[in-house]
Amino acid sequence: MNKYLSIAPEIREALAADKPIVALESTILSHGMPYPENLEFSHKVEEIVREEGAIPATTAIIDGKLCVGLTSEQLKIMCKAENVGKVSRRDVATYVATGMVGATTVATTMMLAELAGIRFFATGGIGGVHRGAETTMDISADLQELANTQVAVICAGAKSLLDIGLTLEYLETMGVPVIGLETDDFPAFYCRKSGFEVDFNASNEATAAKIMKTKWELGLKGGAVIANPIPAEYELDFDEMNAVIERAIESAKKDGIRGKATTPYLLAHIKDYTEGVSLTSNLQLAYHNARKAARIAVEYTKL
Ligand code: PSU
Ligand code: MN
To answer: Which of 65, 103, 160, 195 is the most buried (most CB within 10 A)?
Structure first.
């Protein structure tokens, strides 16, 4: 085993017994949601995975180790987010070598999940091609990871702070399947529709599990995006959210925000502008994704 990998005992047992496991990321906690709401979320999302018969494995980099499965104490560290960095693939060795605490993004959570042998991962939304990427070249490392790492990511699509059309083009070029869960539409995080379609509408969790099993048995490398729209009762208005997002992007430009600070800055401003309404939606869609991911992981173990 990788000497830097620290797998919690419960996860290790689950792996040995071929039990369903769902990885969960920590950047959503440290840089995507405010404290203390994120602390309640971090526990509840794990409970939901358990309710569906799977084992949750939140990931982070702590004390020079790639941690898969966190204790409540470790979850609290990630949620308080004091001196907790945002770690994408390029940052992993630096954080491990220096012992800094790092929150894992979609890209690094996939990395850690694959190292541990976990196939499914639930989050809110993936990173992608940012609006204006033709000049900034700001394209999330999440997309490369999806192309190369064998983990399926169950999410509510992507926020329209990204260029969703270009994000889907990029995924197509990289050979990443985009599967909808009971939907023809690729969802836009707060909204059930983005104006773009998924590649295939899987009518249930078993079908999604079978597609992943087949992909990997075929020897095709990489993962997949499994898109699960926000429950209708928590959906927000597309045009209203778009206006909020545009305001946040303008503000980021004015403040000279660049690089890895961009996404956390936009997320925090979107939350402020909607006075927390968007936070409720964010929490609910992530719970919904965790539930579906657990069901898919359970179906996968039956194949
Ligand atoms: N999008 C969200 N919420 C999030 C993120 C993205 O709606 O919390 C986080 C995820 O961890 C994702 C990361 O992997 O931001 C992408 O950052 P960047 O755009 O810098 O690659
Ligand atoms: Mn970026």
So the answer is: 103
